């Protein structure tokens, strides 16, 4: 009788372990606009600061990663309705949407925003009033809460573009009249990818308007506590052994 009970317990434990390990992690990627944090290369191959960190977190673990790539707004809708449980992406406490609700204990990167403009007509930026008469180029779909009051008051005009190539084209066609507000790391990466010379542009700090802030991994608000604990533990190990910084620096 005892042998049967032991056998049944082993079968039950194996079944539970198998069911848990076969439960996939759903990693969400922003299409075309998140380089170098997320760089989609094809349906099954992804890289970038966040994507490489996620892969490293689950390397040699029991977890399987399912990748989902969508335009930003559509991705946010899917995260909000929890189309898939135990989802994972990246976010920040500064963003104020679903990407700020449940974050990793350790940040993975610190963001700095800059102003990019054409080098043909340089100007000095010190305060928001220095942008009077200029249009601000912003990416479609993204929110800019620090700029919104100035846009609503009519102090700033905005031009929305779908990607970085379009943003650079606007600056090149309208030197002196437009500026591009974006993360420094994204601008440098995309200028390099498109074989454009950074010396042809003027880059200035924009910290007086958009403060530097941390980027974290962002979790499903209802993520399995054991899974979330596992991710936080692995991130802590990667931070301590330098792997986290090594991944970040490889894209900067």
Automatic annotation (TrEMBL):
Keyword Signal included in the entry's annotation: yes
Key words, A-Z: Signal
Name this polypeptide is given: Amino acid ABC transporter
Source organism of this protein record: Vibrio toranzoniae
Organism taxonomic ancestry: Bacteria, Pseudomonadati, Pseudomonadota, Gammaproteobacteria, Vibrionales
InterPro entries according to UniProt: Solute-binding_3/MltF_N (IPR001638)
SUPFAM superfamilies: Periplasmic binding protein-like II
Domain Solute-binding protein family 3/N-terminal: 31-252
Record's signal peptide: 1-21
